[in-house]
């Protein structure tokens, strides 16, 4: 059992021990790739320029202890913390974090900063396969990566997708797995937004504990079998996540509470176009049926909705998409056919899914935004969340489907659904 790392104070000492950055400058591209020919590169974009700084220290200790060989795997980490100005890139190997770049204080919620790191990592650490990990607070369909020092805003999902597309197009490399170490971001809106950017997506529908991903398990598995293919690794990461959080004593965690509220899933992004097309067709059939079947929709919502959790983005009302629509079968024959087509496309794209037993059968891998009333939809009680309006945030699935129209039909079906803030229907 690994020794738990020290908390915030130690984090400050660890960073201070490295040379502090002198100024933000363009990343140095090496004359020759640093590690050409390896099987895997793991690029980690880590934002703790907020209240998650203790997680950075914990993760760093885990990486240094569990990453026992860099013969066939690179582990390259971009790090931003709140207690010390600056951003750093570390090459983890031989039990140490070796600083290779210091870029000064940057806003890591800026997609251009993210893109700059991708350019640097893909150019200097090419490999046969690449995994990208992004860590920070997550806000479902809105985005992730909140930098409190620089604007206290987040990186929108469409901006993140564009940064990945730009960097991979320039490098000619591919991101084989994108692992989102952030709460609530396994949504159908996010998966569709990222459909042409990465090979596989791994993320959680719900809360992710401070430990984050089971980095010890993942890195040891990659070192033991660097030839593992992306699909197999994405599948195994789901099982690792559920195993790691299966007990508060089997593995040492940052906090000693029961981890019985876990979800994690992996999807084949090459099949997400089909999921989006089936979803769009289904919502077109559903919209004219909503008003007369609002009770059925609410009953489906009650089954599909796992838990409500207050976050910086408001109340995350995100029922499980597959369960929600599966429960609407029986309303109309044409709708039944459209739902079946959606479920078939969803099943084809799903690589693996796991959830804690106490959550029942509701979690199925991807959530969808469905607030219980109009006041929640527009986040009437949250000034910050009003900056991110669902139909105006640039999400492709929202723009290409009738889902917003379905929601508006539902809210107008009963007067009480218009102005009942922060309540579960």
Short description, anyone?
The protein is α/β, with parallel strands linked by helices and 425 residues long. The chain has 14 helices and 13 strands.
Radius of gyration: 21 Å
- Beta-strand share of residues: 15-25%
Question: Which residue ranges are poorly predicted, with pLDDT under 50 across at least 5 consecutive positions?
Answer: 1-27, 421-425
Order of helices and strands: HEHEEEHEEEHEHEHHEHHEEHHEHHH
What strand order characterises the main sheet?
4-3-2-1-5-8-9-10-13
Q: Kindly report how far apart the N and C termini lie.
A: 44 Å
Secondary structure class reads alpha/beta
Provide mean pLDDT, rounded. Answer: 87
What proportion of the residues is helical, as a percent range? 25-40%
Question: What would your notes on this structure say?
Answer:
By secondary structure, the chain is an alpha/beta fold. Helix content is 36%, strand content 19%. A hairpin with a 5-residue loop joins strand 6 (143-147) and strand 7 (153-156). Helix 2 runs parallel beside helix 6, helix 3 runs parallel beside helix 4 and helix 8 runs antiparallel to helix 11. It is globular and about 65 Å long. Residues 1-27 and 421-425 have low confidence and may be disordered.
Key words describing this protein structure:
disordered N terminus; two-stranded antiparallel sheet; alpha/beta; 9-stranded mixed β-sheet; 19% strand; 425 residues
Helix-strand layout with pairing:
Blueprint: H1 8-16, E1 38-48, H2 53-66, E2 73-81, E3 87-93, E4 96-102, H3 111-124, E5 127-135, E6 143-147, E7 153-156, H4 157-171, E8 175-181, H5 188-193, E9 198-203, H6 215-224, H7 230-244, E10 263-268, H8 272-286, H9 294-304, E11 310-311, E12 314-315, H10 321-326, H11 333-349, E13 350-355, H12 374-377, H13 396-400, H14 403-412
Parallel strand pairs: 1-2, 1-5, 5-8, 8-9
Antiparallel strand pairs: 2-3, 3-4, 6-7, 9-10, 10-13, 11-12
Helix pairs in contact: 1-2, 2-6, 3-4, 8-11
């Amino acid at each position: 059992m690994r020794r738990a790392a020290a908390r915030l104070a130690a984090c400050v000492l660890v960073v201070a021990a490295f040379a502090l950055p002198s100024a933000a400058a363009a990343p140095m591209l090496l004359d020759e790739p640093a590690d050409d020919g390896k099987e895997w590169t793991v690029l980690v974009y880590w934002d703790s320029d907020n209240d998650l700084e203790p997680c950075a220290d914990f993760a760093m200790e885990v990486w240094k202890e569990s990453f026992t060989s860099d013969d066939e795997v690179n582990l390259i980490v971009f790090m931003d913390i709140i207690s010390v100005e600056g951003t750093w890139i570390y090459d983890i190997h031989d039990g140490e974090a070796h600083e290779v770049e210091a870029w000064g204080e940057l806003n890591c919620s800026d997609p251009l900063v993210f893109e700059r790191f991708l350019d640097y990592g893909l150019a200097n650490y090419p490999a046969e396969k690449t995994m990208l990990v992004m860590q920070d607070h997550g806000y479902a369909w809105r985005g992730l990566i909140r930098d409190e020092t620089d604007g206290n805003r987040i990186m929108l999902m469409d901006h993140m997708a564009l940064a990945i597309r730009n960097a991979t197009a320039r490098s000619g490399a591919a991101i084989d797995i994108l692992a989102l170490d952030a709460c609530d971001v396994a949504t159908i809106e996010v998966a569709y937004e990222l459909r042409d950017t990465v090979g596989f997506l791994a993320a959680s529908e719900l809360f992710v504990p401070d430990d984050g991903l089971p980095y010890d398990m993942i890195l040891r598995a990659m070192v033991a079998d660097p030839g593992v293919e992306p699909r197999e690794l994405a599948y195994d990461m789901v099982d690792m996540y559920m195993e790691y959080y299966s007990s508060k004593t089997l593995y040492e965690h940052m906090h000693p509470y029961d981890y019985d509220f876990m979800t994690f899933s992996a999807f084949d992004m090459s099949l997400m176009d089909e999921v989006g097309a089936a979803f769009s067709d289904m919502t077109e059939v559903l919209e004219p049926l909503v008003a007369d079947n609002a009770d059925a929709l609410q009953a489906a919502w009650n089954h599909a909705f796992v838990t409500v959790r207050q976050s910086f983005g408001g109340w995350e009302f995100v029922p499980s998409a597959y369960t929600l629509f599966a429960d609407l079968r029986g309303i109309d024959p044409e709708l039944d056919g459209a739902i079946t087509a959606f479920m078939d496309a969803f099943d084809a794209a799903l690589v693996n899914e796991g959830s804690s037993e106490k959550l029942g059968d509701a979690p199925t891998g991807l959530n969808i935004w469905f607030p219980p009333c109009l006041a929640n939809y527009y986040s009437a009680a949250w000034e910050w969340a009003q900056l991110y309006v669902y139909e105006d945030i640039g999400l492709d699935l929202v723009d290409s489907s009738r889902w917003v129209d379905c929601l508006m039909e539902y809210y107008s079906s009963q007067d009480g659904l218009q102005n009942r803030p922060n309540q579960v229907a």
